[in-house]
């Protein structure tokens, strides 16, 4: 059996990949494409530890980008499978072969995930057309939350809505939260820990994890909920939506478009971008709306942090990961400020020095340890895809893998 897994991360206009040798988990190549469909498309890739190659050229669709990646890497002939990180499907979770049954279940709920499911489906279909017979295996973002207690899953809505229509809370960023909490358990030598994992990036979420299992999340039913996102609303009163759409005449489509693309940090700040680097620059220039947007973001994180501290009767470790969590020391400091009442104290120098690498940033006497752990969602996807292949392979092939 072949032993290479290509992990494909398909976005609305992007395609990022990482090629793993399994089961050694050695990274053979990595790269990505941005602005697919634009005349200004860009690419980058690295083979092994070699220099990064990059440039610009038009990639009209995902197929053109995939074929370019194949040529740049010298072919996909050794692939055992392509791994994906889909967000959610109706009544399906875990790690699945992305066959028509699974894709149809994703299509059924595209209204809930307008920025996520359509490009993921197109990506799988493109690989199916280009490489018939090559397994496409996805680990759903919801998988990490499959055993969350019922009291943290249900909405206070008519029971029929949950039983008949599937209206309930889910959780996302599952691969990221799984990786960093597993890595933390390795570093601590035990998974018998109360961990609060803070994935802070273009989209952000917080997960409460006890003894290696997720017990709660900042997310609601969809990735449009929870913390304020880069350009998505986060938690929002549903009756405000009804009022805007019906009484004020904005219409449902216009309100949906605003909440999914012009809200969040972007919407609050009034800037053209919700990127935290742009928010920070605007703050230095005296933009009050940008400052308030950051204040709202920090306050929302601290609310969930407090909720999970109560829920788990404290915490042993708080983890920061993803772009902002790994690299923004000032944001981490604001989130962790004035938490000495529960025994959490940062070491200011350690925090300032921690940037994109594993580090303990809490004070030596802090009762709650605070760590920075860079995430590796692709590795979780590759591991799960490899495990699925071994489960479904003929005994003779599995034995030689």
Question: What this model shows, in words?
Answer:
This protein is α/β, with parallel strands linked by helices. It has two domains: 4-139, 2-Layer Sandwich (Nucleotidyltransferase, domain 5), CATH 3.30.420.40; 174-377, Nucleotidyltransferase, domain 5 (2-Layer Sandwich). It contains 15 helices and 14 strands. The strands form two sheets. An eight-stranded mixed beta sheet has the order 5-4-3-2-1-6-8-7, sandwiched between helices. Strands 11-10-9-12-14-13 form a six-stranded mixed beta sheet, with helices on both faces. Strand 13 and strand 14 form a beta hairpin. The termini are close together.
Provide a short characterization of the protein structure:
By secondary structure, the chain is α/β, with parallel strands linked by helices. It has 15 helices and 14 strands. The strands form two sheets. Strands 5-4-3-2-1-6-8-7 form an eight-stranded mixed sheet, sandwiched between helices. It has a six-stranded mixed sheet with strand order 11-10-9-12-14-13, sandwiched between helices.
């Amino acid at each position: 059996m072949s032993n290479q897994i290509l992990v494909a991360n398909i976005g609305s206009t992007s395609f990022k990949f990482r090629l793993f040798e399994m089961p050694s988990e050695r990274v053979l190549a990595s790269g990505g494409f941005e602005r697919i469909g634009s005349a200004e498309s860009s690419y980058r890739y690295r083979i092994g530890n070699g220099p990064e190659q990059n440039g610009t050229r038009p990639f009209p669709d995902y197929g053109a980008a995939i074929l370019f990646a194949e040529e740049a890497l010298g072919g996909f002939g050794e692939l055992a499978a392509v791994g994906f990180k889909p967000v959610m499907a109706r009544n399906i979770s875990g790690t699945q072969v992305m066959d028509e049954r699974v894709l149809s279940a994703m299509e059924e709920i595209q209204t809930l995930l307008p920025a996520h499911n359509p490009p993921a489906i197109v990506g799988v279909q493109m690989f199916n057309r280009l490489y018939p017979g090559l397994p496409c295996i996805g680990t759903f973002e919801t998988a990490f939350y499959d055993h969350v207690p019922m009291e943290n899953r249900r909405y206070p809505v008519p029971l029929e809505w949950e039983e008949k229509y599937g209206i309930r809370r889910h959780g996302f960023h599952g691969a990221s939260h799984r990786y960093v909490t597993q890595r933390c358990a390795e570093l601590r030598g035990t998974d018998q820990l109360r961990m609060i994992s803070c994935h802070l990036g273009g989209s952000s979420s917080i997960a409460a994890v006890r003894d290696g299992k997720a017990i709660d999340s900042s997310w609601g039913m969809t990735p449009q909920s929870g913390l304020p996102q880069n350009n998505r609303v986060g938690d929002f009163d549903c009756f405000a939506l009804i009022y805007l759409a019906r009484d004020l005449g904005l219409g449902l489509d216009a309100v949906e478009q605003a909440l999914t693309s012009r809200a969040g940090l972007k919407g609050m700040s009034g800037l053209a971008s919700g990127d935290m680097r742009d928010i920070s620059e605007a703050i230095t220039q005296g933009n009050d709306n940008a400052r308030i947007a950051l204040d709202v973001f920090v306050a929302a994180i601290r609310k969930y942090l407090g909720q999970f501290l109560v829920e788990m009767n404290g915490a042993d470790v708080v983890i920061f990961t993803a772009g902002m969590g790994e690299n923004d020391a000032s944001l981490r400091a604001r989130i962790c400020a004035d938490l000495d009442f529960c025994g959490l104290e940062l070491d200011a120098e350690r925090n300032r020095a921690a940037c994109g690498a594993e580090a303990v940033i809490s004070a030596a006497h802090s009762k709650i340890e605070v760590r920075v752990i860079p995430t590796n969602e692709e590795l979780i996807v590759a591991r799960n895809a490899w495990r699925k292949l071994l489960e479904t392979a003929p005994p003779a092939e599995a034995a030689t893998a």
